[in-house]
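From the pipeline queue, job 12 of 40. The input is one protein chain; the requested action is below.

Action: predict structure.
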Amino acid sequence: MKAADQHARIHAIPSGFSRRHLLGIEGLSASEITYLLDLADSYVDLNRQINKKLDRLKGRTLINLFFEPSTRTQSSFELAGKRLSADVMNMTVHTSAVNKGETLIDTAMTLNAMRPDLLVVRHSASGAVQLLSEKVDCSVINAGDGAHEHPTQALLDALTIRRHFDRLDGLTIAICGDILHSRVARSNIYLLNRMGARVRIIAPPTLLPPEPERFGVEVFHNMREGIRDCDIVMMLRLQSERMTGSLIPSTREYFHYYGLDREKLSLARDGVRVMHPGPMNRGVEIDSAIADDRAVSLIHDQVEMGVAVRMAVMDALSAHLRNDLSKEI
């Protein structure tokens, strides 16, 4: 597809997202999710061309504010902003006033005075991003808050699945590992349930939230039973930094029971695909032979979809900015 045709395709997608912020997947309708996925799908093709830039955010300012370290997510948001022609600033929190005792509210007031248009926030405390969104005038995107949500990760996972299977509804998807501490799991459960997939979660009892059935999922403690006849097996990282106490006997024993290897994967459906949000603990939650096997692994695709999804989210949220600009003119 020629660049001009691709640009026309993006502009032709009718607006289907009127929210000011993206703080989570919970509460989004199926039509809103579909709109974001359709828009992101168009950006995948754009990102594969020589000329990858659009002027959708020209003159706008994007601030990446990460209170937790990140490689994939922060760089993905930065690249997405630049491809939409935004002015991008990355705030290094460990060298900022936050490290000198500045409160989150003070940080919000400081940022607001800089008059950004988009603020991407990752924070270790659940609800911190919501609090910030109530104190600033710009649009806020949740890049992960505690164990609460990580909406753009769920969207990129859904786009990866949809591009491979051409659908989400009717698929059986197993999410395996540290469900208790995973904002990725929570956002994926919300999205996949909303879009008609059948969701299973697999974990030892110590790594499950209380009453996990309330999320509308099937719960398994035996991995071999849980992944039987699944279309997708989504592995999660053991988040030792969020764990208090000993929740697993050892990483070696954890891999024996809950790590994905060829033998366990053979129980899934023919054509099964494997996913992982990264970073991976090879030999702990997944065998390298599977992670690196492009015949079954969609992990590389997930990384590519991340830029397109974040471009789509920024584009969708900034629609009201373009409307405001047209009124000024």
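Job complete. Confidence is low (pLDDT under 50) at residues 325-329.
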